[in-house]
Amino acid sequence: MKNRQPTFSDPVLSVIIPVHNEADVIPTLLTRLDLVSRQLEGTVELLFVDDGSHDNSVAQLMRARDRQPGIRVVQLSRNFGKEAAVTAGLEHARGDAVVLMDADLQDPPELIPRMVAEWRKGADVVLMKRRSRAGESWLKRTTASIFYRLINRISDAAIPVDTGDFRLMSRRTVDALNRLPERNRYLKGMFAWVGMPTVILEFDRDPRAAGKTKWNYLKLMHLAMEGITSFSTRPLRLALVLGLLAAGAGGLFGTWEVLRALIFGISTPGYASMIAMITFLSGVQLLCVGLLGEYVGRIYMETKQRPVFIVAEDSEDLAQPVVPQLRVAGNDQKH
């Protein structure tokens, strides 16, 4: 890999931080990011994407923008969800390299210089792997581990276990992501699908610095379903296998009952066996219909061609009339 020489016509580094009701943590976040920015060579763009916050997150960021150069605030017209907010950030970022991180400071910004050093050595992607996950329950850690191992078994794009959005990507990697046309976007899978030379660094994830998480298990289950249906058709094949097994089991059971009656003169009294078989087959049918519905629903949403996000205001355009920007791609999952 060749060492990279930055171009200084645009920011060398863009740091994308999606924000949704993070007023409690923003002062600490800004202080730590400012200290990190001073350690880096060249200019740094701190790109905050506000995903429809209802607190004073935007007001704090705009005040900080007046004091601190390099801060840019992109406001979405409503809460489109984290995947959409990150997509907006990727499309607005101008750096030769782009870092993604959460606003809650579970991903320490002090690691950014290490990531930049690996990028300058030639890595297109610097992926941060969680060695430990402070502040997370046993249930969340366990279900996350099971999900990533499951999706890696059934998907064509291998997603590294114990990783999140915290990563650095080169400009060509970001450009490749921006060319992907999906409207239902599962970004961790898209990152893996794009590929590019990758360096993995381990770190200890901190507990949330302030405020409360916007995620719950229902939203995490929805995100998991997005990931599975976005990057694998094997659930459909599983439905086919279940159908064949159910049909085979029903045929064998029916044959056995006929043989018992003809050869041994034994007939099964009552309707218990029939009810059990009908219940089993009905369950298999409903499972298959549900799987088909998930995929058909995704096709339906893609055909609508709705934008992933709408930009209501960009702090760089405050001197000009605001014209909402439409981006055709993304999903409607909310924080």
UniProtKB/TrEMBL annotation:
Assigned keywords, A-Z: Glycosyltransferase, Membrane, Transferase, Transmembrane, Transmembrane helix
Family annotation (Gene3D superfamilies): Spore Coat Polysaccharide Biosynthesis Protein SpsA, Chain A
Keyword Membrane: yes
UniProt subcellular location: Membrane
InterPro entries: Glyco_trans_2-like, Glycosyltransferase_2, Nucleotide-diphossugar_trans
Pfam families per record: Glycos_transf_2
Highest taxon listed in the record's lineage: Bacteria
Cross-referenced CDD domains: DPM1_like_bac
Chain ranges passing through the membrane: 238-259, 271-296
Membrane topology annotation: Multi-pass membrane protein
Domain Glycosyltransferase 2-like: 14-174
Record-given protein name: Glycosyltransferase family 2 protein
Organism: Marinobacter metalliresistant
